[in-house]
């Protein structure tokens, strides 16, 4: 094992399952000291049995809770923002409450965590912030109105932070996944009248003919967290099975 993240302290949000869980495990495998957080405390608990991973409940929409966590457990060398909500529907299907939730969880949560973590990164001489965006930030997909708009905002947030703190050794990059197999996707597919047809449609829109695996997104996150990517900031890494071609 290369231990590419030895000595690094990482905070991961929405780490109980899916992409967040895979990133937390991938970081720990590479030697990082990982604080895995999620609002789903019972699901998160299983991660705490993994060497190198500590767990703590965190609501990414609660600024006071984020500040308290960073005060108690920081500073961090790496921050991974995974928390998100996928609204299904067009602008005509999206209520103001659903629009507000999409931006609060998908974008404002990142504002909160970055604002809390960056001062400690500055003191430590640098750090890496990794924001999970989506290929929807650039590619219009049916019934992803609020999600696509919020993920486009994540890309803008990422580039702004990268520009503001590049002189402090703080890097900020985004990962744009395609459709990735996860419990969240299973729940969304299960809500369709015909789940079998819905899953087939998700697979069909992937040029590689399959869904992504959380570990494939985690591999990119490990690279961005490691010193191998110290000359990389303000970028978007498309890990999308060819959807952006």
Total strands: 7
Main pleated-sheet profile:
7 strands, parallel
> CA-to-CA gap between the ends?
33 Å
- Taking pLDDT < 50 over at least 5 consecutive residues as the criterion, the unreliable ranges are none
Mean pLDDT: 95
List the strand order in the largest sheet.
3-2-1-4-5-6-7
Helix percent band: 40-55%
What series of H and E elements makes up the topology? EHEHEHEHEHEHHHE
Helix vs. strand class = alpha/beta
What is the number of helices? 8
So what's the overall shape? globular
Percent of residues in β-strands? 15-25%
Radius of gyration: 17 Å
What features would you describe in this structure?
44% of the residues lie in helices and 15% in strands. The protein has 245 residues and is α/β, with parallel strands linked by helices. A 7-stranded parallel sheet has the order 3-2-1-4-5-6-7, with helices on both faces. Strand 5 (127-132), helix 5 and strand 6 (170-177) form a beta-alpha-beta unit. It is globular and about 50 Å long. 44% of the residues are buried. The model has no long low-confidence stretch (mean pLDDT 95).
């Amino acid at each position: 094992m290369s231990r590419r993240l030895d000595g690094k302290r990482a905070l991961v949000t929405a780490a109980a399952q899916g992409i967040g869980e895979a990133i937390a495990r991938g970081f720990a495998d590479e030697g990082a000291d990982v604080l895995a957080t999620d609002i789903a405390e019972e699901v998160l608990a299983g991660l705490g049995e993994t060497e190198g991973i500590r767990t703590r409940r965190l609501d990414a929409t609660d600024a006071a809770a984020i500040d308290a966590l960073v005060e108690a457990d920081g500073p961090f060398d790496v921050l991974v923002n995974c928390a998100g909500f996928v609204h299904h529907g067009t602008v005509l299907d999206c209520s103001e409450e659903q629009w507000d939730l999409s931006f609060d969880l998908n974008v404002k949560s990142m504002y909160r965590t970055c604002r809390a973590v960056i001062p400690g990164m500055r003191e430590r001489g640098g750090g890496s912030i990794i924001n999970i965006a989506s290929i929807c930030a650039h590619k219009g997909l049916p019934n992803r109105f609020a999600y696509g708009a919020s993920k486009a905002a994540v890309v803008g947030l990422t580039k702004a932070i990268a520009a503001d703190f590049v002189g402090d050794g703080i890097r900020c990059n985004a990962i744009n996944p395609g459709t990735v197999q996860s419990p969240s996707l299973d729940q969304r597919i299960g809500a369709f009248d015909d789940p079998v047809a819905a899953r087939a449609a998700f697979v069909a829109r992937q040029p590689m003919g399959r869904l992504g695996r959380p570990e494939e997104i985690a591999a990119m996150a490990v690279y961005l967290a490691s010193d191998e990517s110290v000359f990389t900031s303000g970028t978007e890494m498309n890990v999308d099975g060819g959807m952006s071609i």
